[in-house]
Fold this sequence. Notes:
Layout: H1 5-27, H2 35-51, E1 75-77, E2 87-88, H3 91-105, E3 113-120, E4 123-130, E5 133-139, E6 145-147, H4 150-153, E7 174-182, H5 185-197, H6 206-214, H7 219-223, E8 228-238, H8 246-255, E9 265-268, H9 269-283, E10 291-298, H10 301-307, E11 317-321, E12 326-338, E13 344-355, E14 358-364, H11 368-374, E15 377-378, E16 385-389, E17 397-401, E18 411-412, E19 426-427, E20 436-437, H12 444-455, H13 467-475, H14 490-494, H15 501-514, H16 519-525, H17 533-543, H18 546-551, H19 554-558, H20 565-575, H21 578-589, E21 611-615, H22 623-632, E22 636-638, E23 647-650, H23 656-663, E24 667-669, H24 671-678
Parallel strand pairs: 2-11, 21-22, 21-23, 23-24
Antiparallel strand pairs: 1-6, 3-9, 3-10, 4-5, 4-7, 7-8, 10-11, 12-13, 12-16, 13-14, 15-18, 16-17, 19-20
Helix pairs in contact: 1-2, 3-9, 12-13, 16-17
Bound molecules: 8-hydroxy-2-methylquinoline-6-carboxamide.
Residues 84-85, 117, 119-120, 124, 180, 232-233, 295, 314, 317 line the site of 8-hydroxy-2-methylquinoline-6-carboxamide.
Amino acid sequence: MTAPSDIAARVRELRKQLNDHNYRYYVLDDPEIPDAEYDRLFRELQALEEKYPALVVADSPTRRVGAKPLKVFGEVRHAVPMLSLGNAFSDEEVRDFGRRIAEKLGLSEVDVDFTAEPKLDGLAISLLYEAGVLVSAATRGDGITGEDVTQNIRTIPCVPLRLRAEAQRPLPRVLEVRGEVYMPKAGFEALNERQRAAGEKPFANPRNAAAGSLRQLDPKVTASRPLAMFCYGIGQVQDGRLPDRHNAILSQLKDWGLRVCPEIRTVKGIDACLDYYREIGERRASLAYEIDGVVYKVDHIDQQETLGFVSRAPRWAVAHKFPAQEALTRLLAIDIQVGRTGAITPVARLEPVDVGGVTVTNATLHNQDEIARMDLHVGDHVGDTVVIYRAGDVIPKVGGVVLSRRPADAKPFVMPSHCPVCGSDIVRLEGQVIARCSGGLFCPAQRKEAIKHFASRRAMDIEGLGEKLVEQLVDRDLVHDPADLYTLRMEQLAALERVAQKSAENLLAALEKSKATSLGRFLFALGIREVGETTAQSLAQHFCDLQAIEEADLETLQSVPDVGPIVANSIYTFFRQAHNRQVIDKLIAAGIHWPKIVVKKPATLPLAGKVIVLTGTLQGLSRPEAKQRLQALGAKVTGSVSKNTDWVIAGEAAGAKLKKAREFNIEILDEAGLLNLLQ
Length: 679
Ligand code: JCF
């Protein structure tokens, strides 16, 4: 059948788009559209080519596996092509896969064994071992030729540079192992925090982060990135034999020291595969790594050989994908939120969109740099089309802009120069990423947040004082600071909107009850910047008394576990503000009280009264750990050397403090000396 000209044009258009997206994905590590959108375009092209075979060309994106390797890395030709997997998006497609296989093997469907495994969202890598030694590592590239990333792969701690020879089965002379290099979720979040703090571009998702980290020209950069690898198969094998079941091959790889995903199971029949899919789907959020589906493989290698390959992928395996965790939607506006400490957070208001089963209407944009980096544009009605994604179960994020869909009237977003709530200047200190409203407690938004924090469960735990109520109390000027809460009267509460007599009574009772608290909770409730729950508890434990904290100097504050110069400075500054002291006095006058903290007498501890300074790098334990243990023995650990210092403990590469200790003639201990003290 000859194709109508509009179909031919559509096919050309799809190819051009797919090629562009391929290039962005594989070469630039900077995809513009979600995978699901790419899959949709790909399937449309596939369907058209199937219907009109005359339109097929040799270089159509459907005719190959991936994209050209990056030219800066050397090339590696794969001895056995590295193919990708066919996809299934529904139970029905998985059942079709199962039926085809059973038919071709002449078996009943329940008699086919499958290995089921999570499908990691990273990048496929081939490792080549000769005589047990890692000699080369390559990306998949276009499946035939990949990039040589040996030096970078060598920096990944879990990739063995030499296999463990095991007597049971000798190592083949040449063994090619394949697997997925990925970035664990926790490492990804930490890396993005670092990127943002350094004013650099965060990665859109763990897969891009893994790819970007592997494609570094400088292996030192790769080494600094939290990468890991799970092996899931083999390529070429020379002069050696492997077991005849996929599952047994993976066990063998594990014995040789290669990391294999512990979630892999062998199951009988397609129904059991689908059970596995649901089980893993439920646990997806709690896995330490990102997965985008599961993979089923026929377990018997001889059956795999019978089944063979179709153009792009093995017939004996399929990837059963989870519903997309990414989607496209349109940006309606960017609003500004003002936090408790005045931090300004821009928030994207979005046209509602389903992302992996959850409707998303808002997403944080973190800060100004983030908006500038993505170059977000807003319009009079709608702005940019954006990619929204959810990684695991975490909050939705904006991953980027689809430039080709930008409305003509859209303009770059400009951060306001004044707080939208109180009109004070918004200031951004040099070197800081976060802009802040300078209004302090004059700003109603900050006041509301401060009061919400004060009342929150882990602080004063005032039940029934919710968001809406705080809004009304502040807006009607009934409550200016947390202490005003305790002056509220029945008539005032009853006059508020949506407050019944009963809930007003309950609130007053909750306020009364909250007066009996602990020093740690009270300190936390004050909302001192940098003082979280743990620090508040440490301060309480250490000083036992509010007045001592109010009067402590910077050095004394720093002798508290976990309190460094920044936190100490924040505490010190807080208590030097007259209005903060006034609020505290009002709170105490209102009847807030806590039990006296009784501690074991420091004099009975072996290092009581001793002043110690730690400097340089310790080998056996971290500095905070050493500090904590010394303090547990009664010692005071400070940050600077003075005449009062009893010992300076100098680790490796100690500098100025060690010099000063020598000048003051203070006893210097090495790490062994420290361990001695601790005993
Ligand atoms: O985890 C994966 N992304 C993954 C990809 C797992 C597998 O077992 C694969 C794969 C790509 C190809 N197996 C093949 C054959």
